[in-house]
Specification:
Layout (H helix, E strand, L loop, with lengths): L2 H11 L21 H9 L7 H11 L4 E4 L6 H15 L9 E6 L3 H14 L7 E4 L5 H8 L3 E6 L1 H9 L10 E4 L2 H6 L3 H9 L6 E6 L4 H10 L4 E4 L6 H4 E7 L5 H11 L5 E4 L3 H13 L4 E4 L5 H13 L4 E4 L1 H4 L9 E4 L6 H8 L9 E7 L4 H11 L5 E3 L4 H5 L2 H7 L20 H12 L3 H18 L2 H14 L17
């Protein structure tokens, strides 16, 4: 048997290659974590890891830097806390005075507290020292907690820098840095603080960054901070928007408080989280709800830490079923059983909308998200719909919806047949207006009350702004200049005057 025939025979008779073993980590014990950590997970009835945990934990245990992209409520905290605790248990050593081995940064006090609770829960059978440094409370207790050093320090950037500058903390021994909710820290203006903190860390360290979104600024920050990172982007089994019944109610701006009260009284609400744009707005909404007989509390950055913890505890227990919050404070709220999220103010950042409605429909549950939208917020709604790639069902509770929707362009088209008095030789597209009708209109304008001359241009300006068309804006300027009496016109500025 010669040449090609022999080679063909060998290929046929050769044993089939063994199939490649696919690593499928479907249970936590497959990770080979420390026995004390596995026992804590069993006590917490944690059996199956989420997708972000299944992909991230082995990479972190190998010592690589990680960028984790996953939506809120997917288990990101355990994805970095479990391998970090495993590393600390495998490499025990007492921390240096005024130092920490692991530094976790988060944007809000509430989220920082929840991260610390997770470390203590998963490491309850380990001899791990962990503490919290956040604003809103006295620094004295935090300084004393750091005096002998800790294994894990969870902090907000501002208070951490205060401790560093007061020589209560040194960052030269940090082995692992974690940035949780990095996109939110960027939105809150912590980017400069983070750069200052990173500059004080040792170059040889492991860095883990977790974020719900990946804007360009986060990518640039990751390129500066991380070394050859592994990117883990997880799409949940069902996107949050798919499990949330989204609605939008068109309202007049002044009617928002009454519509909100009607919504809360007509819906079957277990727990409701209401978002406002400002701290003052949160307090005002809470007072209006209380006057209407709906028990509500507000939480925002101006509240002390004790007040925020008290309100959150009451909200978790169900003693308060309605919580009014700003985006910054609510980012750290992890409460099960929130049935309704209400956007009293539509956010001007589309990603913020996704974070807001992510407070409901957690852990596979379903929820309702209702947005109260006035005329000025419609542009925000269009951006949101473009991001989530779906149209939000709309109902209308405005007093005069047809009047509000009347485009200014219609008014411009209706007057397009009027001739231009400065161009008498040219006929307009709709035909020239008869001379006697033109004189009659001019006479009628001269006999109008003076107040109408001031009101009409303002009404036309609102219509032109709502339509957004260049033609409508030009038509408004032309009409307003014709309708103003000559006596009301101010002095004209020339190119040689001081005001030019």
């Amino acid at each position: 048997m010669a040449g090609p025939a022999l080679r063909a025979w060998r290929r046929k008779s050769a044993p089939a290659p063994a199939p490649k073993k696919v690593l499928c980590l479907t249970y936590f014990h497959d990770f080979k974590l420390n026995d004390a950590i596995t026992r804590s997970l069993t006590e917490e009835k944690y059996l199956t890891p989420t997708p972000i945990q299944a992909q991230t934990i082995p990479i972190v245990m190998s010592g690589r830097d990680v960028i984790g992209i996953a939506q809120t409520g997917t288990g990101k905290t355990a994805a970095f806390a479990l391998p970090i605790l495993h590393h600390l248990a495998a490499n025990p050593r007492p921390p240096e005075r005024k130092s920490c081995r692991v530094l976790v940064l988060s944007p809000t006090r509430e989220l920082s507290g929840q991260i610390l609770d997770s470390f203590r829960t998963y490491g309850r059978h380990l001899h791990i020292r962990a503490t919290l440094t956040i604003g809103g409370v006295s620094m004295g207790a935090q300084v004393r907690a750091l005096l002998n050093g800790v294994d894990v320090l969870v902090a907000t950037p501002g208070r951490l820098l205060d401790l560093v500058q007061s020589n209560a903390l040194r960052l030269g021994d940090v082995e692992c840095l974690v940035l949780d909710e990095a996109d939110r820290m960027l939105d809150m203006g912590f980017i400069n603080d983070i750069r200052k903190i990173v500059a004080k860390l040792p170059a040889k360290r492991q860095t883990l960054m977790f974020s719900a979104t990946m804007p360009r600024a986060i990518a640039e920050l990751a390129a500066h901070m991380l070394h050859d990172p592994v990117k883990v982007a997880v799409t949940p089994e069902a996107a949050t928007a798919d499990r949330v019944e989204q609605r939008m109610i068109r309202v007049d701006r002044g009617a928002k408080p009454s519509v909100l009260i009607d919504v809360l009284k007509s819906e079957t609400v277990d727990r409701a989280l209401i978002f406002t744009r400002t701290k003052h707005g949160a307090d005002k909404v809470a007072r209006n709800l209380a006057r209407a007989g709906i028990a509500a509390e507000a939480i925002h950055g101006n509240k002390s830490q004790n007040q925020r913890e008290r309100v959150l505890a009451a909200f978790r227990k169900g003693e308060v079923r309605t919580l009014v919050a700003t985006d910054i404070a609510a980012r750290g709220i992890d409460v099960d059983g929130i049935s309704h999220v209400v956007n009293f103010d539509v956010p001007n950042v589309p990603e913020t909308y996704v974070h807001r409605i992510g407070r409901t429909a957690r852990a596979g549950a379903e929820g309702v998200a209702i947005s109260l939208c006035d005329g000025e917020e419609m542009a925000f709604v269009r951006d949101i719909e473009k991001l989530i790639r779906m149209s939000i069902p709309v109902s209308d509770r405005r007093t005069h919806p047809s009047r509000a929707e009347q485009p200014a362009a219609n008014g411009a088209d209706a007057r397009s047949a009027k001739p231009n008095p400065h161009k008498r030789g040219k006929r307009r597209r709709g035909g020239e207006q008869p001379r006697r009708d033109r004189h009659r209109d001019q006479a009628a304008r001269h006999h109008e009350p003076a107040t109408r001359h001031h009101e009409q241009p303002a009404r036309q300006q609102e219509q032109a702004a709502e339509s957004g068309g260049a033609i409508a804006s030009v038509a408004f300027l032309q009409r307003s200049s014709q309708s103003r009496p000559k006596t009301d016109r101010g002095p004209r500025w020339t190119s040689h005057s001081k005001g030019s």
